[in-house]
Amino acid sequence: MSLGDQNDNPVEEHECFHEDGSRVVYLPVTNRIADRKIRTQAIISELIASDGGERILDIGGNEYQSFCQEQGIEYTMLNLASPQRTGTGGYHGGGMTYDGRTLPFPAGETFDLVILNFVLHHAAENALPILRQVKEIAARYVLIGEDLTGIDYAASWHDRNHKHQPGGVFRSDQEWRLLLSMFGLPVLRQYVIRREDDVDPGRVYRCMYLCSVD
Ligand SMILES: C[S@@+](CC[C@H](N)C(=O)[O-])C[C@H]1O[C@@H](n2cnc3c(N)ncnc32)[C@H](O)[C@@H]1O
């Protein structure tokens, strides 16, 4: 199956499998950003037992603070010290801060789940060093959200990406899957995010990769 071969796919949620056996979940078509948050909460609940002893690190995000508190999960937020000066990504801070490249945790400190949702394309010079360090501090899972692209995507999507993060690095699905496995973070499951304003419903513009730690 090639990701995006979905011309006959319904707008409702459905699933299929990559050749390597990993599962692809096509989320329902929606424009509600809250749906992604609800889905991520469901992933967190599924992965992390709510016994008060589990730890999550959210790099570049702050969306799951109250949810984790309710579930008895320790939730650590890490972001740049100040908002980026360019682009439309916004600033989802409020927790720890760092220089954007070197994670500020002592050797041996780990988190059960590290979330990097829609962050790495903003960190053009730092994405690979961050991934390498995430592999070291993630004990069980890593969840990575990304905006996808390719040279055959519509020019309007390239324009959107440039406005979203001038100088950002946007990759294809194939590139992300290979990169993640090269970093020892093979994809277990992929969630395809589909929006009503997707330029071409047959293509994938955004997705989340749930990775295990080798
Ligand atoms: C589009 S927002 C994503 C927010 C949230 N994770 C979500 O899923 O909605 C991008 C975030 O990445 C942060 N960011 C950019 N470069 C970063 C870096 N090198 N390290 C950590 N966070 C970074 C920005 O400050 C912003 O909070």
TrEMBL record:
- Name the InterPro entries for this protein: SAM-dependent_MTases_sf (IPR029063)
The record's SUPFAM superfamilies line, in alphabetical order, gives: S-adenosyl-L-methionine-dependent methyltransferases
Top-rank taxon, per record: Bacteria
Q: Please report the name of this protein according to its UniProt entry.
A: Methyltransferase type 11 domain-containing protein
Question: Origin organism of this chain?
Answer: Stieleria marina
